Amino acid sequence: MAGHTHIFGRTLTPAEREKERGSEREREGKRRDKLRVDTFLSAPDILPRHLLVRRDSALRGHAPSAETGHAPSAALVRPFRGGVVTHNGAELVREAKLRPGDVLGLGQHFLFLYKDPRCVSAPLLPALLSPLRSPTRSPPSLVGALCCQACGRSQAERQARLREYLSSTQPVLRYSIAHEEQLLREIVEKNGSPDSGAGALAPAFLLSLCIDHASKHLHPAHLPALLLKTANLVKGLVWDKIKEIGDKQPENQEKSDVSALSIEALTSELRPLMFWMSNATELLNYIQVKVEDMERDLEFESSSDLSADLETSSEALALLDDVIMYTFQQCVYYLTKTLYSALPALLDSNPFSLPPPSALPPDPSPLTPDLSLMPGGVARVLEVYLSTLELTRTCQLHPDLVSQTFGYLLFFSNASLFNTLMERGSGSDSFFTWSRAVQIRTNLDLVLDWLQGAGLGDIANEFFRKLSITVNFLCIPKTRLIHSSWSSLQEEYPLLSPAQLNHLLRHYRLGAGREPPTSWQPPEDSNLSSDIFESFLDHPPLILPNEVSRLGLGEPITSQELQQEVQRIRAFLLDLEQEALPANQRIQL
User: Fold this and answer.
1) CB atoms within 10 A of CB 297
2) Which stretches does DSSP call E strand in 498-587?
3) What share of the chain is helix, strand, coil (3-state, %, to 5)?
4) CA-to-CA distance for 100 and 119, rounded, in angstroms?
């Protein structure tokens, strides 16, 4: 190996050479030198590109310098898709570290001993001939990896190693493909509910352990199928829950006297949806990393199989996208339905008339001041916000989705309150007066202060801007307002369209028999025909988080409940494997 990479393969046939030319044209602009065969072998089971050996620094485009004094970079070995390779006698399907003395088998006809001239302490005997040395890649099954009788360990050593694995806090879950369906079913059946007890992100964590195992120990072609299977499983569970919630809504009940769900009952119904929204988000971020790893393989792989695997993986990502988006839509739909009936009281209630102290409960909320201290109309709205916030925290929803959930709720609240104000203000409700505007301003300030205390102040100020500015306009003292001109008001309140400003001025209550001043008249070229109401269609788009998963699969498990569930599943898998073995091959703990 003179360069950073070395490829073993065979000479192309004329048909393969023609196909290669087409592939090279598709890869125009990419590094084609990585796919050039360095050592040609001749055997019927050798692929045109069969095996790649590279230095660990090869992908980073540099090699270690002798002047730096750094240790030589490690060598890595990986088969090309479909290439039969063994590493110290064990089948190799994934990239592995290559050590001096390791033996590589290519097909059924070639064995190579790896020696590194930079390492003076290379073993004298090949690793293949050393029975006490652990192979670099263990068989994927639990019993095969830890209890194989051919490994040279005594029965007591095998039992101790198995016990160590079963109680380990490392995020590792070994299984064989034969038990994969049962494993996935066990995970979702025992952890598919928010009340399962293993934690809010337990399904995503356990399913990601399965994906992690498949990506490291199973054949590369199996991983995309597992990703798609997992995504379909999650989607099926969520779709069933959405239908169940829809069937419970009053409009879908046979009895017409069924009242609307309270906010407590509603959040209880929405909890499974937000639970799976949270888990699907973490799964999506984790799977995205695996797909990016597969995309990097395109630097070396020219197989159409890899492209098909990427398409399958992209389909799995799209399914999880759908789950997140639809659960989000369903949650905000039902929450805004509840808000719609509570919001008008924010305009109607008088914040200066509070209940007597004897009627107030003694215990405040742990998150915010006691809502019973708020005016009735404010309290009903804040109850929806508080219940939603507690729901997101219980389900450990991603912070980006928490912000977007409240962004949508506050957008809806702003548009609904503004439209109600514009519609009812011109009627008998007398909203367009200074005294009523001060009451509305006070109620709105109580809501904004509460949201600020809950850590949502920036979002609230952004989405309540239109309503806040409109109420500020109505709070202008009458003596000042009647001396203001159209142009000065439009300059001071630019968020109000000419049609909206004209509506407010035309219907403002100056007093009995008083006509609006002529200075309020809009210019003749003003566009007064546009809609005075805010559109509900201009809601902010949902942007899915694209970050590193928060599951912490690189660290030991710290949650006792989650650790107990991982141990239970390991024991479940062990029982499945033991049942499939003859009695004399089963290991007793």
Assistant:
1) 17
2) none
3) 55, 5, 40
4) 8
Q: Which residues of the chain have pLDDT under 50?
A: 31-32, 59-69, 130-139, 150, 255-259, 357-368
Look at residue 561 and give its three-state secondary structure: helix
Distance CA 547, CA 271 (A): 24
Q: Per-residue DSSP letters for 125-189? A: S-GGG-TTSPPSS--SSHHHHH--GGGS--HHHHHHHHHHHHH--SS-----GGGHHHHHHHHHH
Rounded CA-CA distance 505/520 in Å is 7
* Buried/exposed 186-222: b ≥16 CB within 10 Å, e otherwise: bbbebbbbbebebbbbbbbbbbbbbbbbbbebbebeb
**pLDDT digits 0-9 by tens, 400-455:** 999 999 999 999 999 999 999 999 987 776 789 999 999 999 999 999 999 999 99
Distance CA 185, CA 233 (A): 9
CA distance 168 to 446: 51
Of the candidates 75, 316, 321, which has an alpha carbon nearest to the alpha carbon of residue 214?
A: 316
Which three-class secondary structure state does DSSP give residue 391? helix
Q: For 384-400, what is each residue's pLDDT tens digit?
A: 999 999 999 999 999 99
Asked whether the beta carbons of 186 and 572 are under 8 A apart, the reply is: yes
Q: How many CB atoms lie within 10 A of CB 529?
A: 7
pLDDT at 136: 42
What's residue 589's pLDDT?
65
Determine whether 276 is exposed, middle or buried from the number of CB atoms within 10 Å of its CB (0-12, 13-18, 19+). buried
**Degrees, nearest 5: CA angle 486-489-492:** 150
CB 507 within 8 A of CB 360: no
Helix or strand or coil: residue 113?
Answer: strand
Considering the entire predicted model, what is its pTM? 0.83
106: β partners: 85, 110
Answer yes or no: are the C-beta atoms of 72 and 118 closer than 8 Å.
Answer: yes
Report how far apart the first and last C-alpha atoms of the chain are (Å, whole number).
Answer: 48
> What is the C-alpha to C-alpha distance for residues 572 and 256, in angstroms, rounded to an integer?
48
